[in-house]
Amino acid sequence: MTDFHTGLGKNDANYQPLTPIDFIIRSAQVYPDKTAIIYDDLEHNHFTQTWQQTFTRCRQLADGLRKLGIDKNDTVAVMMPNTPAMVECAFGVPMSAGVLCTLNTRLDINALTFCLQHSEAKVLIMDSEFADLAELIIETFPNLIIIHATDIAVNVERFGQMSYEELIDSADNLDNWERPLDEWDAISLNYTSGTTGTPKGVVYHHRGAALNAISNILDWDMPKHPMYLWTLPLFHCNGWCFPWSIAERAGVNVCLRKMDADLMLQLIAKYKVTHYCSAPVVHNMLANGKPEYKAAITHKVKGWVAGAPPSETMLAHMEEMGFDITHVYGLTEVYGPVTVCAEQDDWAALDVAARAQKKSSQGVISHLMTGFDVFKQGTTEPVKADGEDMGELALRGNMVMKGYLKSRKATEAAFADGWFRTGDLGVKQPDGYIKIMDRLKDVIISGGENISSIEVENVLYKMPAIQSCAVVAAPDDKWGEVPIAFIEIYDGSTLQRDAVIEHCRQHLAGFKVPKHIIFAEIPKTSTGKVQKFELRQAAKSMAHETSKVTINPE
Question: What PROSITE patterns does the entry give (predicted)?
Answer without folding.
Answer: AMP_BINDING
